[in-house]
Each structure stands twice: as C-alpha cells, then as structure tokens.
Design a protein that fits this description.
The chain has about 220 residues and is α+β, with helices and mostly antiparallel strands. It folds into two domains: about 30 residues; about 180 residues, Alpha-Beta Complex (endopeptidase fold (from Nostoc punctiforme)), CATH 3.90.1720. Helices cover about 35% and strands about 25% of the residues. It contains five helices and eleven strands; from the N terminus they run H-H-E-E-H-H-E-E-H-E-E-E-E-E-E-E. The strands form four sheets. It has a five-stranded antiparallel β-sheet with strand order 8-7-6-5-11. It has a two-stranded antiparallel sheet with strand order 1-2. Strands 3-4 form a two-stranded antiparallel ribbon. Strand 1 and strand 2 form a beta hairpin. The longest helix is centred in the N-terminal third of the chain and has 26 residues. The termini are far apart.
Length: about 220
C-alpha cells in the first residue's frame, strides 16, 4: 500500500525526533560524569584529612591501621585520594592516569585566549574530581611518554572567593597548611609554571604547561 505525503511526513518527523533523542542520550553518556554531592564532600574531607599528616613530596606514608607504606609522589597521591574518596582505582603513573582519562573519552584541553589559558572559561568547564595534567615539569620524564606528562593533581572546585582549588602532592609552594610543598590543598593557577626540563647545565629548555584534564571511567 502506497503511503500518502501526509503519512510520509509524519514518519519523517517521528524519525527525526527519535534520532535527536538517541544522539542526545549518546552525547550525555560519553561526557565526563559529575560527582554526586556526597562524593564531592568525601573528596574534600579526604583531601583535608590527608593534608594534616604533613607529608613531604615523595615522602613515605603509612595509612592509619594499615601495614603498608606508600611513596607519596603526585601520581600515587592522586591514586590514594581517588581510592579513599571515590573507591576508584587509578594506574600508578601520571602518564597512565592521563591515558585512562583519554581512553574514557573524557579528556579535555584548557581553553585559551590571547596566548594563555583562559582561567575564567576553564573554571566553567572543570568539575570536582577532574585530574589535572601538566607536561615538561622535570627532566626525568621518560622519553617514550608522548605527551610528556610529568605532574598530576586533583581538582576540588572553587573556594568562597571563587578561586580554583586543587589537592595533591605539590613540589613547592604555599598550601592550606604547608609553606613549602607536600601533600596539601592549593590554589590552582593554570598559567603558573611549576617546573621545567633542564639541559646538562641545569638550564631550563622547556617550561611546564598545564595540558589537559578530565575523569577516567568511574565505573
């Protein structure tokens, strides 16, 4: 039986609506998941609790009630915070953590304006729990790592002054409790230089750069 034009148009409209609905659901499903209110609170509490131990960068830490010791460099600190706060297991190195985010489809690059990162726009995109990645932060990054990820922190959100805040193992700088780096809560300035790659004469030849952010799969 041949379809009249009115019936064909109705079918076409229905198909278009269904297609838009499917694409919308797919788009939402691949976006970085937002943490629940409870997860955000647990993330902040875990970060604040950990900062009270005054752990230096790459220092040893034995979690209370445990019989193992961790070396708290940046990636192991992010790993510990994710395990404690979110129950999510991260790979050991910052490079592998970067790839976990990339492979999940949630990796984002920071927005730029006038030759630098647009902090205001970045603040609108970032979500608590996002891993923050830098490249070229030190000279010991394995040459096979592409991109040369050298540092990772965990984004917490904004403070009462609307400043971006992160947690993790800082190599130096003032945090909530520390004056010279270590495991703490810090203000996050995406344009700040936090290290460099040096030549044999200890001269900086590549400055660090905030490179990307996002969450791995939380399932």
């Amino acid at each position: 039986m041949a379809l009249n034009n009115s019936t064909k148009n109705n079918y076409l409209r229905t198909f278009k609506v269904l297609l838009i609905l499917i694409l919308t659901i797919f788009s939402i499903s691949i976006q970085s998941k937002s943490l629940t209110k409870e997860q955000k609170l647990k993330l902040r509490k875990t970060s604040d609790w950990l900062s009270k131990f005054s752990i230096r960068y790459a220092g040893e830490f034995t979690p209370p009630g445990q019989n193992y010791t961790l070396r708290m460099d940046c990636s192991n600190t992010a790993r510990f915070i994710y395990e404690e706060a979110l129950g999510v297991h991260l790979p050991r190195t910052s490079f592998d953590q970067y790839n976990a985010v990339k492979n999940s489809g949630n990796l984002k690059t920071p927005p730029r304006s006038n030759g630098k990162i647009d902090t205001e726009q970045l603040g609108k995109i970032l979500k608590p729990g996002d891993l923050l990645f830098w490249i070229n932060t030190h000279s010991d990054i394995p040459k096979k790592w592409d991109p040369p990820i050298g540092h990772v922190m965990v984004y917490l959100g904004k403070n009462k002054k609307s400043q971006l805040v992160m947690t993790g193992a800082g190599t130096y700088g003032k945090g909530k409790r520390t004056q010279k780096g270590g495991i703490d809560i810090y203000l996050f300035d995406p344009n700040a230089k936090i290290g460099c790659v040096r030549d044999s004469n200890r001269k900086c030849i590549k400055n660090s750069e905030f490179f990307g952010f996002g969450k791995p799969s939380l399932d």
